[in-house]
Write a structure and sequence with these properties.
Elements (H helix, E strand, L loop, with lengths): L4 E5 L4 H13 L3 E5 L10 H4 L9 E4 L2 E4 L1 H11 L10 H31 L5 H21 L12 H13 L3 H8 L2 H11 L2 H4 L4 H5 L14
Parallel strand pairs: 1-2
Antiparallel strand pairs: 1-3, 3-4
Helix pairs in contact: 1-3, 1-6, 4-5, 4-6
Length: about 220
Amino acid sequence: MQDRLTLYGATYSVYVRIARLAFEEKGVGYDLEPVDIFAETGVPEDYQRLHPFGKIPALRHGEFTLYETDAIVRYVDDVFEGPSLTPAGAEARARMTRIMRVMDNYAYPRLVWGLYVNEAGERPDPDKLAASIDPAAHCLKVLEDLASAPFMLGDRVTLADLYCAPMIACLRIAPTGRRLLAGRPHLGTWFERMASRASMKGTLFPQEVAGFPSSAQALIDPDC
């Protein structure tokens, strides 16, 4: 397929960034079509035809459309030439999927919603923040225990790294997140290695450029 990819979403979105990282690592050209699911007018009606649950991102490739970040990144990895983002061997692929699901099911709710939203929002909730610290710290410990070196599964970047990096990037915006990461030096070294890649530099969150965000909405996006 030679049609150019169109990704629908917003630059503040964790999951849109995961998809963009996959495109960048594969060297695939794409257009980012802005969709703000938090607009006062609600999710655009035409977008709901692409994503019936009104989340982001969604993908168009010629006549083919797709939603769910996992499906999008695996599709792009399968269809396009460039470095494979999926390791060889059943065990390595299973470990990759395990990390991806850990990030979806445990890390994202705790690191982004639990720490970031409750610390950096317009109406911070110190009680919910306090209740989130231990679960978030546990997630980071598990992630560090699962990680190899120099990347999550060894000597090259995989989808596991692309799932982890945006969530750790937003965690680092929040003071409590930075404090917890300081106690996980292996994760810190891994993140600095990821942050130096062109794919990460080219997909920075607006909040990473502007500094500490003023609105919790900025990094909330419920797709997974």
